[in-house]
Amino acid sequence: MMNKGKALSLMLAATLSVSALTACGGNNNNNGAASPAASGSSAAASGSADAGAKDTITALLPPVSPTYQDNFDQMEKDFNAQYPNLTLKIEPASWEDMTQKLDTQVNAGSPPDIAFIGSDGIAKYVQQGMALDLTDVATSEMTGDYDATPLEYMKNGSGLYGFPAYMEVHALGGNKQFLEEAGIDWKKVQKDGWTYEEFREAIKKGVVKNGDATSRYGFVFATAGVASKDYLGIMAKSAGMPAAFNEDMKYAYTSKNYLELLTDLRQLIDDGSMPKELSSVDAGKRWNMFLTGQTMITGKGLATFENSAKKNNEKIDAKDGSAVKDSIKVDYIVLPVPTFAGALPISYTVVDGYVAFRGKKEPTAEHKANIAKAAYFLSSGKVAATTNNDLFAAHITKSARDAAASMPMERDPNNQAAVQTMLSHAAPARPDIPAELGAKAIKIENEVIIPKMQALLANEIKPQEMYDAVKKAAIAAFGEDGIVQD
Length: 486
Fold this sequence. Notes:
It contains 19 helices and eleven strands. By secondary structure, it is α/β, with parallel strands linked by helices. Strands 1, 2, 3, 6, 7, 8, 9, 10 and 11 form a nine-stranded mixed beta sheet that branches. A two-stranded antiparallel sheet has the order 4-5. The longest helix is centred in the last third of the chain and has 23 residues, at 435-457.
């Protein structure tokens, strides 16, 4: 995924945050409606009792979890078994080409019926008139199966444009041995968090040098490729900017806190705690550096990384040649993002999911209802349980929790508690942000923020220069009265 890979998402109001005090998968908050059974197949929700005309629903899906795409044939068979008149046709995509594939199809007026994307991207497609509102075909038994908060992420205004797959915290990850060698009380950090100043001093202690060469950094974050917007987007949440717009609908990234955040992030490289070549570190290289002991802390950290580290440890023990080359055994520790500029901790919580699309012509009522059935099938019950267990992600539907009861999953209790703590101070979803504003914010992110951030990390520009460029673009998009000026 998550990448997410991507994860992330989601990064705007758009940039993925969730309701405070929500325990993802912990509280059975499903809007008070009755939920389907573990298979997600109640008569009303599944429609399996309906004969109906034959129809095909198409879905463009990336590798959401390590084994997700291996299950495509079975997903198609199970869907057809539940709906004999319907065919689910899945087109696989990589995380790297997912957006390009989708946008090419959208621009041609023939997108897939369903695409797996971050909820932060919904505004863009609503603005283009290509996202499909499922409000009138999503039954109460479908919507009632989901925890309330993640479902809110799939909305824009009053429209419901799909169903969520998971609600995931984008955090940091540490090497337990290295943290303890550096004298870092990681259990306290998991519980109480840390400020930027505390984090800065901690990662300095994780640096190991051999002469002028650094053999281990204190902190490495993926900032290239599909991860190019993650670093700044995640850190901004805990810098007093939980979304791209404040509650008065003023663009937030012109705040003085944004400039302070940019200054701090550059400072970590100048300290020598992060590589000077950080702008070229992609998600794969970041994870390789972590598993080979080249960094004490990595980011972004996802719950599934604990599982990935465990599996690599097992390969090392078994002298399996498929273990990451030169890797060491690692006990993965979930860590929160530090807070900046005296702000309160706000977790970057990403909700990705199955978003519905329409072509140039309005779909028939029957096809629209079938799209809802397919999106619900993919995001609930056995499919969701299998995927989220693979990710170590909490389940957000009752049907997935029921299905997962027979799927054992071993997870470090300290890490599980840390994720719940981060979820407890996550920001609410922002479906109130108009699609037009959200789309403009995404445009600024893609055209100004991402390239300028790459230049800042490469030491080609200064924090003030990047801040000025973002502010100039924001004024052009939203006007002097439409931005935060503090």
